[in-house]
Amino acid sequence: MPEESHVSVVMPVYNGIRFLNQAIDSIREQTFKEFEFIIVDDGSKDETAEMLGRYASEDTRIRIVTHQENRGYIEALNSGFAVARGKYIARMDQDDVAKPYRLEMQLDFLTANPGIALVGGALELIDADSRVFKTISLPSQPEELRRDLRGYGNAIAHPTVFFRRSVLQEVGGFRKAYRAAEDYDLWLRIMEKFDVANLQTVLLGYRRHEGSISYKNARQQALSCLCARTTARLRLQGSPDPTSGIDCVTESVLRDLGVTQEAIDAAIFKNMLELAEDATRSGFSSAAAEFITMARRYAPPDKLARTSLELNRTALNSATTAAEQNKHRVTLVTADPSIYREIFGSSTTNREGFSVLIPVYNHANYVRQAVASALRSPLVREVILLDDGSADGSAEILADLSTRNPTRVRDLTKKGEGNRGAHNRLNELVQAATCSWVAVLNSDDVFVDGRFEVILADPSFRQCDFVCGNLLIMDEAGKLVGAKRGPFDPFRHFPQGFDVEKMAESGNLLDLLAHQNFLGTTSNMIFTKALHTRIGGFAAFRYVHDWDFALRAMVLGRCCYVQRYLTSYRMHPGNTINESAAKVSSEARTLFDRLTNDFPHLTQRPYFGIGLEQNVTLSSLTTGTNSSTVSIST
Question: Fewer CB atoms < 10 Å away: N or C end of the chain?
Answer without folding.
Answer: C
